[in-house]
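DATA SHEET
Item: assembly model
Revision: 1
Owner: S.N.
Input lines:
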Amino acid sequence: MNTAISETKTDKMIKTFIYIFLSLALIGVLYPVIYIISASISNPADVNSGKMWLFPKGITLEGYKIIFENSDIWRGYLNTIFYTVLGTSINLAVTIPAAYALSRKDLVGRNLLMGIFVLTMFFSGGLIPTYLVVKSLGMIDTIWALVLPNAAAVWNIVIARVFFQSSVPVELEESAKIDGASNFKIFFKIILPLSAPIIAVMALFYGVGHWNEYFNALIYLSDKAKFPLQLVLREILVLQEMTTENTQISGSMAEAMHSKQQLAAIIKYGVMIVSTLPIIVAYPFLQRHFVQGVMIGSLKG
Amino acid sequence: MSSSTATALSNEEEKMDSANMNPIPKNKKPKRNRKILQNWQLYIFILPAFLYFFIFHYIPMYGVQIAFKDFIPSKGIWGSEWVGLEHFKRFFDSYYFWDLIKNTLGISVYELVVGFPLPIILALAINEAKDGLYKKTVQTVTYAPHFISVVVMAGMIIAFLSPATGIINHGLGLLGIDPIPFMSDPKWFKTVYVFSGVWQSTGWGTIIYLAALSGVDPQHHEAAIVDGATRLQRIWYINIPALVPTMVILLIMNVGNIMALGFEKILLLQNPLNMESSNVIATFVYQAGLLDAQYSFAAAVGLFNSVINAILLITVNQIAKKTSETSLW
């Protein structure tokens, strides 16, 4: 009897410890996010001096006003939306049919083809040879350099293939074939209507990838008008350049310079929010799908 | 995520092996040809993916030969002259060679040692929490940073760690610690890189472990409770062993990637003051190849990196095969 009671005691302690640990993880992840949100609407002087550390102080929307008046950010935003939509459409058009075909057991050579695809996960030509291919195709400084060199990801093809293998009943295909339906017809009339979940997962994985992509744009684009949002952000956040085209410099130059410097800080926090907003807004609704995608992948294991 | 790739792969290879071992009997050949013809439309489905991998992955593999040539764009890959191992020699003899190796390995190993166990611990803890709003909140919140772009991440790091205006140094000031120039002092670079990565990816990393934990038969736990096992004992003797195969696979994948670290973030955090500890092989390839246009030399350095990676991957996989039942192939 005694041991049972003492065991529940240690169990309780462990349980408390686990909940403390989880709370620390929760706070640790949340704090920077809350800080950024607060900083973006606080009085710049309070942010820079450290007086604002959790809740906004001296609320001002000056930072956001400048952000919304900045044409580079707007252009970057529109470019990114365009690249994301186009890129994701290409990704889906390449991934879904290929994954379906590779899931069919009656496809001769499917293991060979899959092997050819999977090998690229472990061996690659590397940065320079890939760059030279893109260059020789004349894609430098065009949209195509952003959407074609990553037109598919092996890992996503693997996930989609597992989905088709495990959730499309073979009998359905067979009865359609007996009825004389072609593979095109089977795919478009039977398979696609059943694949909404996997199309959603794939669109999310690829879409977030395009939204956050900066490196390909950095190496392939030189025309500023084509810059995606992430490259514009890089200039503001990392290279610390903010074009002042819209900040009115009034009064004495020194005062203007000082307030500009102060403002630059909260602008930075503001652009972090603005650029991540679509993902933040969509995330709680889509989280399930993302996790599902990872789970489908691990189903094979 | 990657562990399952691994298992998917090993399944794939098993199948390929068995296919090789049982050659198709001759009388079945016409049937196979008929099957190919019957399913020609399926090959059309695969064609775009095939073309993509051929153009953007296999042609670059062919292009790797410029590492052994003196590539001149106007002459093309084939027309440029062979120079043997000249570029490799130049790299090995350069004064920065050991610095690059030291930084690349240093950051990777640091990241592995800190970053590998944390998702496991967090997953075990989440798994112990009662199902409900709190558990869901912890999961939703800790997964979220995974979706923050690397540029925003770098911006956050730079802003938070600023010696004059950053919140971290303000916090340290309250404790009586002088501002630390995190971004310009080389000795802080690796820590900044590793711990910002912990913030961003620990939560997401738990998903795969939680999936493995959900596969644990509840009967094991019930039986253990009847036998008087404490919660800690149950975690230690039931849950952790259930995670071992996943851990082994992820460990192999991580070690196999040790030379290919998150160089997009390093590139963004790099500045002339911290170069001493932030210059890694991947950023060097970018610098030498794309900014200085030394294509052949940079391709050679990149190839050296991939070869080391491949050797590490094969070695670790071999060790895993010998010591446990789990391996990539």
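QC remark: DSSP finds 17 helices and two strands in chain B.
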